[in-house]
Input
Amino acid sequence: MDATCVIIVGSQWGDEGKGKVVDLLAGHFPWIARYQGGHNAGHTIVIGGQRFVLQLIPSGILRGTAKAVIGNGVVMDPQALVNEIAMLEKAGIAVQGKLFISNRAHVILPYHRMIELAAESAPGRIKIGSTSRGIGPTYEDKMGRRGLRVCDLFNHELLRTHIHNALLEKNAVAAALYGSAPLDPGRIYEDYVGLSEQIRPYITDTALLLNQAAARGEAILLEGAQGALLDIDHGTYPFVTSSSTLAGGACTGTGLAPTRIASAIGVSKAYCTRVGEGPFPTETGGEPAQEMRRRGNEFGSVTGRPRRVGWFDAPLLRYAAMLNGLSSLIVTKLDVLDTLARIPVCVGYRLDGKLIDAVPAVAADWDRLEPVYEELPGWQSSTEGMTEERQLPARARDYLKFLASQAGLEIGMISTGPERDQTITVAGSSLAQLLGPSRASTQSAKN
Ligand code: GDP
Ligand code: IMO
Ligand code: MG
Output
């Protein structure tokens, strides 16, 4: 079997710049597929000053050439999808004939959001700081075998009964535990019948579609949402999202077999951020944090919350590289560090005074980790918009070399601004080879 699929994954806590990277690479892949998460994701792409935030539809849709797939592993809010399609069409981007949605993806219903909102603020519950999109409760219903799939939207009898029965339980639980007002099953049924008609043209068996494309030798880019440390199994549990964000999730979330996967490429900021609750060993405050937040515009693209900011965390990257089998790293937002005089990088952790190799399983142990830092001199000049490695100041190159050696990965691409073409493809890297000699320049990605 020929391996035709490449996975792009976040290797921190999300918002690494996956959207920009996928949009950039999409020029080289006829297919782009999302495999997990839902509209908790916010992937920002800036093209010629125009800013798009995609939450459900793969970032590749902005390329005239790529077909976009929402795989079975995604949880889909039909209203969010309809809004996103309308946003794209308003911007002159064709969606009809280019978007394909799995008939097996699970559907987010209003009661999922109701339960999540109420439960997050209930006394005694650990606050995760979720995006309040109903993602967790929808995956709970999926795994509990009481979910509603996209294909079920078109059987109206089944849909009516499903919503009615689900609300018998959800309304009772929400009222008893959280004092929430009940939702009306008839209203939800009517809304979802209307929404299902709007999305009907896009629904298909995407596992079949993608496997047929792969069998024809057509390359597929799999776009991860969230990041390695938000993975339900391997992340900083319980401060995680409810899906398999790692490369492994790409197979179950699309129906593409592991033997189809050629490689997994990680995306990381040149520093680190996190939005929501949970451990963050290299988190920093004060002046440098304010500077990075301001220069990097570190505010959540979905919720507008200020992102927590910290230093590049090499042990965390090594962990993400191991779990994803990363072959290459893309470092984004280098330009955000342009003004700093000194840049600490975490090279190891101490727990109870001892250097540790493995990442702790217990959330409370994460909070007790003491990062071990090495400090590198800043370059204090602008790297913004650079497109060639040789343009970079020597200290910026040294910084990147240090990150690569600490992460144990080659750096294949460096992002120096939010725009598509503010990117350096590292000559001779495996990523440059993957894109092909004629493709290694970011110029060719402009279309
Ligand atoms: P994603 O969720 O991984 O796709 O990342 P987000 O889009 O949520 O957050 C990344 C933010 O950084 C977006 O606002 C991007 O436009 C922006 N961005 C991406 N790469 C760069 C870069 O190299 N420099 C700067 N300054 N901004 C960038
Ligand atoms: P992208 O794809 C950053 C975080 C939330 C919260 C936790 C659980 O843009 O990188 P959820 O709503 O998923 O149940 O919230 O996960 N979170 C993200 N943080 N980027 C994301 O996506 C995120 N999606 C969820 O803030 O802490
Ligand atoms: Mg994001």
